[in-house]
């Protein structure tokens, strides 16, 4: 349902960490990454420009950690990493860990990062969020 009424102008499929990932360009200038699975929904959906994404897409390198795609919108070219644009836009642990593993995002010291960006690798994780106590009832008694 998230892709309803979306006109796709370009499609490229690349294996990332053993999983097939589709990179879609849209008529309204968005870049969408979709991990092929039984439940298809985008794990990256960003606006590149207000103009349509060109049908021509260039793959710079197919290595997931190093690779990127060049996508053109009008007279603008955007380099998009195969594993996604980054993790910093996610502000909660839950939203960070709900991302596909393809993005290589995890939670570290109160922010969403890739493992290489975490100052203490022992703190970075992709498995769980530390519980937070928000309310205690029966404060007296």
Measured between the Cα atoms of the first and last residue, the distance is 51 Å
Helix percentage range: under 10%
Mean pLDDT: 80
Portion in beta strands: 35-45%
List the uncertain runs.
none
If helices are DSSP runs of H or I spanning 4 or more residues, what is the number of helices?
A: 1
Element-by-element helix/strand order: EEEEEEEHEE
Total strand segments:
9
Major beta sheet summary: 4 strands, antiparallel
Mind telling me the C-alpha Rg? Answer: 18 Å
Count the domains: 2
Structural class: mainly beta
Strand arrangement within the widest β-sheet reads 1-2-3-4
Gross morphology: elongated
Polypeptide structure, described:
- 4% of the residues lie in helices and 40% in strands.
- With 141 residues, it is mostly beta strands.
- The chain has two domains: 74 residues; 55 residues, ligand-binding face of the semaphorins, domain 2, CATH 3.30.1680.
- The strands form three sheets. It has a four-stranded antiparallel sheet with strand order 1-2-3-4, with no helix packed on it. Strands 5-6-7 form a three-stranded antiparallel sheet, with no helix packed on it.
- A hairpin with a 2-residue loop joins strand 8 and strand 9.
- The radius of gyration is 18 Å and the shape is elongated.
- The model has no long low-confidence stretch (mean pLDDT 80).
- Keywords: Disulfide bond, Glycoprotein, Membrane, Receptor.
- This is Hepatocyte growth factor receptor.
- It comes from Sparus aurata.
């Amino acid at each position: 349902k998230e892709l309803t009424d979306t006109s796709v102008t370009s499609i490229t499929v690349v294996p990332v960490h053993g999983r097939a990932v589709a990179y879609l360009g849209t008529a309204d200038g968005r870049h969408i990454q979709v991990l092929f699975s039984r439940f298809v929904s985008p794990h990256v959906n960003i606006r590149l420009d207000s103009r349509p994404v060109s049908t021509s897409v260039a793959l710079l390198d197919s290595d997931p950690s190093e690779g990127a795609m060049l996508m053109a919108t009008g007279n603008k070219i955007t380099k998009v990493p195969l594993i996604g644009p980054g993790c910093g836009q996610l502000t909660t642990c839950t939203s960070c860990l709900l991302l596909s593993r393809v993005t290589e995002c995890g939670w570290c010291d109160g922010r969403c990062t890739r493992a290489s960006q975490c100052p203490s690798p022992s703190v970075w994780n992709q498995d769980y969020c530390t519980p937070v106590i928000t309310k205690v009832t029966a404060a007296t008694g």
